[in-house]
């Protein structure tokens, strides 16, 4: 066991504060990672505020981890000391169910994936996330950060990147496809970059035109404000695919009206409240309303290689650990451009 410094929420809705946690001894197939950077995902806030239901406290959030391997177990074959690596939203799963075998570990049916924090590990101990100086993770749940990507802009790819890449690929975003990204925060801005790199015609649907210039620079072809009712008239029946990254409940009926026949609205946002929907909005024109959760380990590696190949990471604002609580407030106010990343040396 090693004692490491971390930032934790001591209880639901309490501000995060500096503390120390224990990391397990490095096992046969484990890597010890010196965490360099940790992204702040809106899911961290939902969980630290217990917005999704009962959570485990103290909670060390953080599932967008980039760092360097400091030690490897005797059985480790994939990584060596000094390698640049990442860890995303899960640190284990059953490894035996059909989904795990198919590389869909995030949908493990053998007890579910083990979250990087706010979960119980196989040894029964709570998991603690990336707002800390070191983490011990099984090599099979660790990915390699390609040389071309700096660790700070790579960190957010471990959740925001894969969560948008996976549905964009699954639902066929590419040349000839009109794709809308709903909400341009941490996930949304990665959705814009990735959909553009995949060759789709990309539209941002944001609450206002405040971030229009940025959106067009990131690769969007069009940018509309959803606060303007004319947007819904003008864009009715336009899109093959809409990916919603919005963290709050929305009128999905209005957004389904923007799909073509056979179009799909894929939701990745995880609001704390349910929505209500008139089902006529999917019956007409055979529309799909779907969801998607992060991506598997192999797909996460594929996404990192894809982003590095296209020469981009996330757009980030680097902060010190002492600024985490303020950053949470700014995320809640949709005032993030476009991901806060903690320099973990400041913990
Ligand atoms: P974020 O940076 O806060 O971005 C969310 C964006 O949604 C905001 O920037 C804003 O975009 C828009 N928005 C927020 N409140 C809104 C409202 N009341 N009405 C309309 N639009 C609103 O959050 P994030 O880190 O990208 O995460 C987004 C959501 O995805 C969260 O709920 C998170 O928990 C969830 N998530 C899910 C997965 C998954 O696997 N499915 C993975 C990661 C995160 P504009 O300013 O452009 O309007
Ligand atoms: Zn996340
Ligand atoms: Zn499984």
Q: Give Rg in angstroms.
A: 20 Å
Q: Count of helical segments?
A: 11
- Sketch the major β-sheet: 7 strands, mixed
CATH superfamily of the largest domain: Medium-chain alcohol dehydrogenases, catalytic domain
Structural class: alpha/beta
| Distance separating the two termini | 19 Å
Give the beta-strand count: 17
The topology string of helices and strands comes to EEEHEEEHEEEHHEHEHEHEHEHEHEHE
Molecular shape: globular
Share of residues in strands: 25-35%
Q: What is the architecture of the largest domain at the second tier of CATH?
A: Alpha-Beta Complex
Count of structural domains: 2
- CATH T-level fold name of the largest domain: Quinone Oxidoreductase, Chain A, domain 1
Helix percentage range: 10-25%
Low-confidence stretches: none
Tell me which oligomeric state these chains represent. Answer: single chain
CATH class value of the largest domain: Alpha Beta
Tell me, rounded to a whole number, the average pLDDT: 98
Overall description:
This protein is an alpha/beta fold. The chain has helices spanning 42-48, 98-101, 151-154, 160-170, 186-197, 212-218, 229-234, 252-256, 280-283, 297-309, 324-332, and strands at residues 2-8, 17-23, 30-39, 65-72, 84-87, 90-92, 114-115, 134-138, 143-144, 178-182, 201-206, 222-225, 239-244, 259-267, 288-291, 316-319, 339-343. The strands form four sheets. Strands 3, 4, 5, 8, 9, 16 and 17 form a seven-stranded mixed β-sheet that branches. Helix 4 (160-170) crosses helix 5. The radius of gyration is 20 Å and the shape is globular. Residues 93-94, 96-97, 99-100, 108-110 line the site of one zinc ion. One zinc ion (ZN) binds at residues 41, 43, 63, 89, 159. It catalyses: a primary alcohol + NADP(+) = an aldehyde + NADPH + H(+). Its EC number is 1.1.1.2. Residues 14-342 form the Enoyl reductase (ER) domain. One of its GO terms (molecular function) is alcohol dehydrogenase (NADP+) activity.
């Amino acid at each position: 066991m090693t004692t490491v410094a971390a930032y934790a929420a001591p209880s639901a809705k309490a501000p995060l504060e500096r503390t120390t946690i224990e990391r397990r001894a490095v096992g046969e197939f484990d890597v010890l990672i010196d965490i360099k950077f940790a992204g702040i995902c809106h899911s961290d806030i939902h969980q630290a505020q217990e917005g999704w239901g009962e959570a485990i406290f103290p909670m060390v959030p953080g599932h967008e981890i980039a760092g360097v391997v400091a030690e490897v177990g005797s059985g480790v074959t994939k990584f060596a000391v000094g390698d640049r690596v990442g860890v995303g939203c899960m640190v284990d799963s059953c490894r035996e169910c059909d989904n795990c075998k198919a590389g869909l570990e995030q949908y493990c049916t053998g007890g579910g994936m083990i979250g990087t924090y706010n979960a119980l590990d196989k040894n029964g101990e709570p998991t603690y996330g990336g707002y800390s100086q070191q983490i011990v993770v099984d090599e099979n749940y660790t990915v390699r950060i390609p040389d071309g990507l700096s660790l700070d802009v790579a960190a957010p790819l471990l959740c925001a990147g894969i969560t948008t890449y996976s549905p964009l690929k699954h639902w066929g975003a590419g040349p000839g496809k009109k794709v809308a990204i709903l909400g341009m925060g941490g996930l949304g801005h990665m959705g814009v970059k990735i959909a553009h790199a995949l060759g789709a015609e990309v539209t941002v649907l944001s609450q206002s035109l405040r971030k229009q210039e940025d959106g067009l620079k990131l690769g969007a072809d069009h940018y509309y404000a959803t606060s303007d009712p004319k947007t819904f008239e003008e864009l009715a029946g336009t899109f093959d695919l809409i990916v919603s990254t919005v963290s709050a409940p929305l009128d999905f009926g209005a957004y389904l009206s923007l799909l073509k026949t056979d179009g799909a609205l894929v939701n990745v946002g995880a609001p704390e409240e349910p929505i209500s929907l008139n089902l006529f909005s999917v019956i007409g024109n055979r529309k799909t309303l779907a969801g998607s959760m992060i991506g598997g380990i192999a797909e996460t590696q594929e996404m990192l290689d894809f982003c590095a190949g296209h020469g981009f990471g996330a757009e980030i604002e680097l902060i010190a650990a002492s600024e985490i609580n303020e950053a949470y407030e700014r995320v809640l106010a949709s005032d993030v451009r476009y991901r806060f990343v903690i320099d973990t040396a400041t913990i």
